[in-house]
Amino acid sequence: MKLTEHIKIYRRGMAALWRLSRDEAAFRFLGAVVEAVTPYVPIWFSARLIDAIAAGRPAGTLALYAGLTVGLAFVLGLLAAWFKKRMDVGNFEFNDNLAFSYSRKAMEMSYASIEDRDVALRRERVESETTMGYNFYTLRECTQSAILYLTQIAASVSLTASFFALGSVAVWMKLALAVGVAAAVAWQMVLYSLSARQVRKLMSSVVDVNLHSGKLNELVGDYAYGKDIRLYGMGEGLVQKELELSMTWARAYNRVQLRAGLLDCLGKAADFVLRFGVYLVLIYASLQGEVSVGSIAQYVSCVTLLLSAAAGIVKSIQRLTVNDGYLKRLFSWFDIPNDMYRGSLTVEKRDDNEYYVEFRDVSFKYPHADTWALRHVNMKFKVGEKLAVVGMNGSGKTTFIKLMCRLYDPTEGEILLNGVDIRKYDYDEYISLFSVVFQDFRLFSVSLGQNVAAATEYDRARADECLKRAGFDGREGTMPKGLDTPLYKDFDKEGVEISGGEAQKIALARALYKDAPFIILDEPTAALDPVSEYEVYSRFNRIAGDKTAVYISHRLASCRFCDKIAVFHEGRIVQTGRHEDLIADHTGKYHALWTAQAQYYTTE
Hints:
Strand content: 5-15%
Strand order of the largest sheet: 6-7-8-3-9-10
Oligomer: single chain
Radius of gyration: 36 Å
Structural class: alpha/beta
Largest sheet: 6 strands, mixed
């Protein structure tokens, strides 16, 4: 990575820290300055006190120096403590805003990005690295350290400058001191560079290990997997896998730490050799009568702090350069664009309800896929009709719905609403036309009423009515808090566990509550037996009223009441028509599917 890119990433990172919490950043960095200056107060005044004692100054002067030493240290200590408390408060704001920024970015992404596994893996890696203390956390800590060390370097140089100004001190002494400090800094830079390279190699080599380990921990900690793990005796295997991942990480980490320890020993050795040299130079100068006793103490302390600060600033810079790789990956996730065109047209409001949806030669291929999910789909239906979309698993039915709802845009062709390409309509207004119950629908660990309304504030009477229409009113009456009963136990120990059939009814009630002109059922009853599925669809057909209802199923008997049936096969529409017409075509796909499934719909 070039220097210009490092600078660009650092500046963007600092701007982000400021946005996430100004208080946290400001008081963290102000606290670093105070912390850095604090040890120099007793160093300077102690040197003056020693010289005053040696010179036989009055007791009042000695007391003044002592009082200033203690008093200023006390004031700086109070100021540092106040900054620390303000920083701690800001840290809560920082963490909350950072967590919210991840959620907000996820909500702003297109659905195509959300379903993209590469994007999901990148987010998982970024969040894992954040949890481990990289990107923003390392940035603010290293910047805080850099400010502290730079302040110490400036203070040390200021308090040792008088040594170089002494005309009585030999030039070779001054050069020896300056060259020694420069050599120590250069040596530390080399050592930390080698150490940082080892860390980068380590973190690059264990990316998959960390991701797999995180997924495994997530799996064994999810109670939904608990039954299968126990009934099939998977516990020992999962523990063994976790152990293997942990040992892989531990072995790699130990190798790096051993090398880092060796490099650190070399750095410490050079540091102490230089300190010994400083002592020798200053002792020699003192014996020559060129430096006072107090000044010797001042110079020794300042040079010692200078060497530590120089080593610290090198380490901070090295860590920042390594961390830039993590920040770059973090920003690459936040920079994923939403390429979904938002449109601007208002959806026409028609009193006669004459709306038409048309798929015109639509083809679609999922991102990174080699095969077409849909190919040359042409179909037109009127709003208010009941449309059934049937076919075998994988025939393209759900993809058809995702395109109609604009979760994706077609790869080829166009979808029209009243003759206008749906991409031209305002995106939020267009998707508000649809209430969908997908096969993999989700309920949330909030109250029953909030699940129905998909909102924190809602019309309770309307929610009750929708649950009643969906056939859930009997179960609602047994719930301890009615609409306020929390679902599941993720956040509330009094949460209620519901069955799959009950969850489907709540999902149907949610679709009704939205009161959108299009209602779509995308195989939400796939886990039910054919008779139960037919009952659900029949009920929903009655309560859908004059809305446009689209039913998706790989079973056929559920859709006999629809105005039109579209038969999908291998991503294409191979037949359209009414049930009676399609079943009469003995050479068609619909008849073949019906015949194959007839055994499920016969009664004795």
